[in-house]
Amino acid sequence: MCHTSNSEILKYCKNCGEPLKNKHTKAERLEKLLVDRYRVMSPLKIGAMSGVYLAKDIRLNSLCAVKELYIKLFPDDDRDLTIQNFKSEAELLANLRHPSLPRVIDYFYEEGKYYLVMDYISGCDLFTILEKDGIPWLSQEVVLPWGIEICDVLIYLHNQSPPVIYRDLKPSNIMIRKNDQKLMLVDFGLAQMFHFKPASNEKALGTQGYAPPEQYAGREEPRSDLYSLGVTLHHLLSGTPPETPFKFQSLREINKDISPEIDKIIMKAIERDISLRYPDVLSMKKELLVVLDKLGISKKERKLYILEDKTSEIEKIERSHKVIKNKEVVKKKIKIFIVEDDKIVRRMLTMYIKLTEDMEIIGEASNGREAIEQFKKFETIPDITLMDISMPDVDGIKATGEIIKIAPDAKILMLTALECTREIVIESFKAGAKGYIIKDTDIDDIAESIRKAYEGGSPIEPKAACLLINEITSPQKFPPKN
Question: Residues near 367 by Cβ (< 8 Å), separated by ≥ 6?
């Protein structure tokens, strides 16, 4: 054993690859009691650097969400800063009080790990509602009141001193709470106090398509959240997720039922030039309220998104550990092929995909040459191939080019830990890649990128998207006419 410090979520050493001893079974991990109070019950979200779990507060006999920071996964040089950022998130949330925000209940350190305990929000996120009921989109009668509720919570955040910038507004981070239909803004992992930093010192954060141009350069401000709100409403009303960054079709060209006033408001919010947007969220809210009153939407009966099963959440979860469902609907799963020379990364991706309901692993390769040989033998081409770029002998870009020759319809997503450069991004897409993903991101986001590519989209990491846009729109590509 090389004595490298590893996270408890790993079964193998991230440095030498040897099996780690004293690993708890899944059942033992679920029965773990934190600070003699919080019993971990099931995972809610597994990210690259943190995990969120559903837990039971045995003192209050209530449910809560526990966020765990995988501090041992960070290099020693980054650890202090990471801990400080995690503490900042705790302090940020602990001082916020709004009916549409989850409360921080507790914060503690135990066995070398940092934990944040928050309200557990039981309900449905807007992305799930759109997928289920938005065929082909959600109506303006449903979406407009949500938009006004989101405005209210953003106004509250932006009026803090200093203002709090949410930075990751999108349908999956907005929930409708089951018991009272209250809209809730969740996942404050990217929120921060408003400040300006030189572009070179600030990492681009956010979700591709929903993040405005200035956020990629680290110069976000309150109007950046306004842009993301506009994109979110556009997605819900059009049924179309943002594909090409900063380019949107008029809502009325997609959905003729949308009022011209709503179309105008949303298209103004998502102006690429920040100076052309509303000066603040309150200004946008006032115009939405005028439309709400004009259309009489406030008088209409709003649809309830409530589960019929009245069994308590605690009873259902505890019962789920004991009951095996005999009848399950068999759904077509996305077939994934992983090409990755780092065995730890490969194992973590494999473990995560096996936990999903709509994906399955059909093969793995540890280098580009091995991947090419396997493609020659495949009877059924994988739906999606995750291809690491940096590999010895035959790298990911070369392997992608060769695989496309064998299987022209193959959908290959470049998975890289490398910093985005113009050369790497352009060469990846020239070779035939359908997407470009950074490894150091939320694993749930990688899964969403897989689903997006499977449905015909092209998931591209924000920095890579900017490089492609600059390449396409550069003067060299379009020289002035004589």
Answer: 339, 341, 391, 392, 393, 394
User: What total of structural domains would you count in the chain?
Assistant: 3
Q: Does the reported pTM lie above 0.85?
A: no
Same domain, residue pair 99 and 134: no
- The DSSP result for 308-365, as a single string, is S--S-HHHHHHHHTT---S-----PPEEEEEE-S-HHHHHHHHHHHHHSSSEEEEEEE
Q: Mind listing the pLDDT tens digit for each residue in 298-335?
A: 644 455 554 433 345 555 455 444 443 333 444 679 99
Interatomic CA distance for residues 102 and 121, integer angstroms? 7
Radius of gyration of the CA atoms of the chain, in A: 23
The mean pLDDT value of the chain amounts to 78
Q: What is the CATH number of the domain that holds 384?
A: 3.40.50.2300
Q: Could you report the per-residue pLDDT of 143-181, keeping only the tens digit for each?
A: 999 999 999 999 999 998 888 888 889 998 899 998 888
CB 69 within 8 A of CB 50: yes
